[in-house]
Amino acid sequence: MRCAASRVAGFVLAGLAAGALGPAAAFAAPTTPPAASGGTSAADLKSDGPTQPAKVQDGQYTDKNGDPTYHVTDSGKKVDWYTMSGYLRYNANCIVCHGPDGMGSTYAPSLVDALKGMDYAHFAGIIVGGKKDVNASQELVMPAFGDNRNVMCYMPDIYTYLRARSDGALGRNRPPEHEPKPAAFEKAEDACMK
Ligand code: HEC
């Protein structure tokens, strides 16, 4: 899905990239070829569907469009680190309106439904800039998180987690097991939160 928001996201994130918010911004331009990476491990995987991993680099999985995606194994019991991180960040920043496990509330829509077919650029545009439903009788506002590092630095993580929920690859509640936290994640996190 492409929309005006994806272009906005590109611009806004390009601006953020000029600052310290590197890791999230890295996903704003999925068409950019991955930088030649000395010393990091990348592998091409067989991709079985649009949201399935086509590639893994330093514990982060991406689909064939370069969008971040999940890796759920052991019959839904074990997740990649980014999905785990996304679960934690979702619970810190989004649950208050969107409800436990992305299920939605009387105030905000289900993200399990909303993420179906939503690409990363579109998602990022909404998170960065917010969204307002002007037609609703009650004014519904999705706040803009563009200057909130606790969200911006973990945007791919939150997207990855919600995508797993949306695809039904991950059930409700905390994932019981996860892949180890990659060193590259820690490095990017430090740089982003500085
Ligand atoms: C203060 C309450 C609130 C918080 C906190 C909040 N949201 Fe929202 N969000 C909303 C509302 C209300 C809407 C619906 C807005 C509309 O319909 O225009 C929405 C819409 C969205 C949409 C678009 C859904 C669609 O169907 O297009 C996404 C994606 C989203 N939120 C993700 C998030 C994520 C991720 C977080 C945490 C980082 C978050 N939201 C935190 C209230 C919130």
UniProtKB/TrEMBL annotation:
The lineage of its organism: Bacteria, Pseudomonadati, Pseudomonadota, Alphaproteobacteria, Hyphomicrobiales. It holds the Pfam family Cytochrome_CBB3. Residues 37-69, 170-194 are annotated as: Disordered. One of its GO terms (molecular function) is metal ion binding. This is C-type cytochrome, methanol metabolism-related. The keyword Cytoplasm does not apply. Keywords: Heme, Iron, Metal-binding, Signal. Residues 81-166 form the Cytochrome c domain. Residues 1-28 form the signal peptide. It comes from the Bacteria. It comes from Methylobacterium tardum. InterPro entries: C-typ_cyt_methanol_metab-rel, Cyt_c-like_dom, Cyt_c-like_dom_sf. Residues 174-194 have a biased composition (Basic and acidic residues). SUPFAM superfamilies: Cytochrome c.
